[in-house]
Specification:
Layout lengths: L3 E5 L4 H17 L2 E8 L4 H9 L13 H16 L5 E7 L2 H11 L4 E5 L7 H4 L3 H8 L3 E5 L3
Parallel strand pairs: 1-2, 1-4, 2-3, 4-5
Helix pairs in contact: 4-6
Length: 148
């Protein structure tokens, strides 16, 4: 049924609800869980300034992907403890919806799981929320989890 399930996270409580739902599904059917998180580029000057403020032995950890890597690590730990045998993570620069859609295409996903946050009211028409964009452009089935 589902061999590959893609879920996006930004580490928020609502995203974690979608991740938990994806974990439950992946564990129950033996699917690979593909966890995606997007980030925006950070100016080099800001990174250099932040690196100066940390001890020299951890300077290497200050990079534009450090926050997203931590978010992905937490999601991977949740999935492993939730019984998912195979978890892969993807840190992608750019728009969150595009990152999720790109990974779904690359891995030929059977399902994309997203939360419904941002799907209510006029904002969904004006802002083009992540779940709205994914529901219209996914290369596979989409499960929209009620998180709000």
């Amino acid at each position: 049924m589902f061999g590959s399930i893609v879920v996006g996270t930004d580490g928020s409580d609502t995203a974690n609800q979608a991740v938990k739902e994806a974990i439950g599904l992946a564990a129950s059917v033996g699917a690979t869980l593909e966890v995606v998180s997007a980030y925006e580029p950070v100016p080099g000057s800001r990174l250099r300034e932040e690196a100066k403020q940390v001890p020299s032995d951890v300077e290497w950890m200050v990079n534009e992907r450090s926050d997203v890597e931590a978010t992905l690590g937490r999601a991977q730990d949740m999935a492993t403890s939730g019984g998912v045998a195979k978890v892969r993570t993807y840190a992608r620069q750019g728009d969150p919806a595009d990152a999720i859609l790109d990974v779904a295409e690359e891995v030929e996903a059977d399902l994309v799981v997203v939360g419904n946050k941002g799907m209510t009211g006029a904002k969904r028409f004006l802002l083009g929320s992540v779940p709205n964009k994914i529901s219209h452009h996914a290369p596979c089935s989409v499960l929209i989890v009620r998180t709000t």
